[in-house]
Amino acid sequence: MLIKKPHEIPPSEITPRHIWERRRDFLKVSAAGLGLAATAAFTGTGLARASATGIIEHIQPSPYSTDEPLTSLEDITSYNNFYELGTDKSDPKANAKFLRPRPWTLKVDGECAAPGEIGVEDILALYTQEERIYRLRCVEAWAMVVPWVGFPLGDLLKRFEPTANAKYVAFETLFDPEQMPGQRRKVLEWPYREGLRMDEAMHPLTILSTGLYGELLPNQNGAPLRLVVPWKYGFKSIKSIVRISFTETEPHATWNRMQPNEYGFYANVNPEVNHPRWSQRSHRMIGDGWLAKKHPTLLFNGYADQVAHLYAGMDLNRFF
Ligand SMILES: Nc1nc2c(c(=O)[nH]1)N[C@H]1C(S)=C(S)[C@@H](COP(=O)(O)O)O[C@H]1N2
Ligand SMILES: [Mo]
Question: Which CATH superfamily is domain 11-311 in?
Answer without folding.
Answer: Oxidoreductase, molybdopterin-binding domain (3.90.420.10)
